[in-house]
């Protein structure tokens, strides 16, 4: 019997993406190498639990859910998160950042200082710059200031990020232009918390790390996996990776697999698997033409 694995998510190291598995195993998918797996026959996707604890009822979750949590576990997981503003007394320092995902897609956010750029890689930020650092609530107030004064959102759906990857500007300077201009506008604002230390603009570009620029860039994606299903399989050569997404060259063209769809399923390794899961056409942003990344 083939060994069964359960994915616990995609993480990013400085040199690329790392798939993590329940039990502690890690594997690093490399560009040009094949990624192939199948969902066990008759399998059911179950809730992954909350904050390191298993779901007490092993509730079933929909195949299209990227959170892979039942309603109760999702509530418990969010109840102790920075995003929910329930950790106001957290003594650790935080950083405020500006992130760019493509033309017109810029957001503001915060991340733990000790995490460095990991959060930006996990979100699929093509380029970013730090804005400042300080206590959690000072970072949060700065984030709110930019949202209110400059209309900068604090989240962008992954579907919109995928839609623009095929039409990114070719140079780092072009890709950094929007956040450079926004950084200057943010610095000029009044009302910054005194405990937040500003940081100068320094654009950091991830296009090369993701594999979406230069001579090694692959063909544009034509579809995205809608969900995994019991008995389904997918296999393809990895041509790019950004945030939770793996871009796989399959017999159906390049297909984007959001690895968050893998969690909660029992998976087995297969050789030469076809793309036998539901795939929907990838919607491109207006003005984006077919062609290379």
Topology:
Layout: E1 7-13, E2 16-21, E3 26-27, E4 34-39, H1 71-79, E5 94-102, E6 105-112, H2 118-123, E7 127-134, H3 136-150, H4 158-164, H5 172-188, E8 197-198, E9 204-205, H6 207-210, E10 223-225, E11 233-242, E12 245-250, E13 253-258, E14 267-269, E15 279-281
Parallel strand pairs: 10-13
Antiparallel strand pairs: 1-2, 2-3, 4-11, 4-14, 5-6, 5-7, 7-8, 7-9, 10-15, 11-12, 12-13
- Write down the Rg: 20 Å
Shape estimate: globular
Q: Distance between termini?
A: 40 Å
Order of helices and strands: EEEEHEEHEHHHEEHEEEEEE
Based on secondary structure, the structural category is alpha+beta
Unreliable spans: 287-293
Oligomer: single chain
* Mean pLDDT across residues: 90
The spatial strand order of the largest sheet comes to: 14-4-11-12-13-10-15
Largest sheet: 7 strands, mixed
What's the number of extended β-strand segments? 15
Helical region count? 6
Strand % is 25-35%
Helical residues, percent:
10-25%
């Amino acid at each position: 019997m083939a060994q069964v694995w359960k994915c616990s998510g995609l993480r990013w190291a400085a040199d690329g993406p790392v798939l993590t598995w329940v039990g502690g195993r890690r594997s690093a998918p490399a560009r040009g190498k094949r990624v192939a797996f199948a969902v066990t026959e008759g399998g059911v996707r179950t809730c992954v639990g909350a904050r390191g604890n298993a779901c007490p009822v092993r509730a079933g979750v929909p195949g299209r859910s990227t959170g892979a949590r039942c309603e109760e576990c999702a509530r418990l997981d969010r109840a102790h998160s920075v995003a929910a503003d329930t950790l106001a007394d957290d003594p650790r320092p935080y950083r405020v950042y500006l992130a760019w995902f493509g033309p017109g897609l810029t957001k503001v956010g915060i991340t733990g200082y000790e995490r460095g750029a990991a959060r930006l890689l996990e979100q699929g930020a093509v380029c970013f710059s730090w804005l400042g650092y300080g206590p959690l609530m000072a970072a949060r107030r700065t984030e709110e200031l930019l949202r209110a004064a400059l209309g900068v959102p604090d989240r962008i759906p992954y579907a919109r990020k995928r839609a623009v990857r095929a039409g990114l500007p070719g140079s780092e300077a072009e890709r950094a232009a929007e956040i450079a201009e926004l950084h200057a506008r943010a610095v000029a604002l009044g009302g910054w918390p005194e405990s937040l230390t500003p940081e100068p603009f320094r654009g950091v570009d991830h296009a090369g790390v993701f594999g979406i620029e230069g001579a090694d860039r692959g063909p544009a994606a034509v579809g995205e996996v809608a969900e995994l299903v019991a008995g389904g399989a997918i296999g393809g050569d990895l041509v790019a990776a950004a945030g939770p997404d793996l871009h796989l060259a399959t017999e159906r063209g390049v297909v984007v697999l959001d690895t968050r769809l893998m969690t909660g399923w029992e998976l087995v390794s297969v050789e030469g698997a076809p793309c036998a899961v539901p795939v929907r056409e990838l919607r491109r942003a207006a003005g984006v033409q077919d062609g290379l990344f």
